[in-house]
């Protein structure tokens, strides 16, 4: 009789172990489903993609602004050279004007 009760206890233990494993599997599946629903509901991946795109656009914009600033710097240098040239020419023009006046007297 001892063997019949031990066999019965073993089968009860195995059955409860299988039920527990089934319940654990169901809970894991439910958690995975809940996680997917939360992720879809929060749209976190869409937000991250949108933020990455905006960051990339900002980076491109900054590069363009840097390029434009370099071009403006070159233009300023050229304008300074032209201003120096105009100053020299006006000084020479004043000298020539004085020479013409002195020749007319």
UniProtKB/TrEMBL annotation:
Annotated localization: Lysosome membrane
Pfam families named among the record's database cross-references: BORCS7
Keyword match Nucleus: no
GO terms for cellular component: BORC complex; lysosomal membrane
Assigned keywords, A-Z: Lysosome, Membrane
InterPro entries: BORCS7
Protein name: BLOC-1-related complex subunit 7
Species name: Dinoponera quadriceps (South American ant)
Gene it is expressed from: LOC106750252
């Amino acid at each position: 009789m001892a063997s019949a009760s031990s066999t019965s206890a073993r089968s009860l233990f195995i059955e409860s172990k299988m039920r527990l494993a089934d319940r654990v599997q169901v809970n894991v599946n439910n958690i995975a489903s809940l996680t997917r629903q939360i992720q879809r509901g929060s749209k976190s991946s869409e937000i991250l993609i949108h933020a990455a795109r905006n960051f990339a656009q900002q980076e491109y914009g900054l590069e363009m602004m840097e390029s434009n600033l370099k071009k403006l710097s070159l233009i300023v240098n050229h304008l300074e050279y032209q201003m120096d040239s105009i100053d020299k020419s006006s000084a020479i023009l004043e000298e020539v004007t004085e020479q013409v006046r002195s020749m007319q007297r």
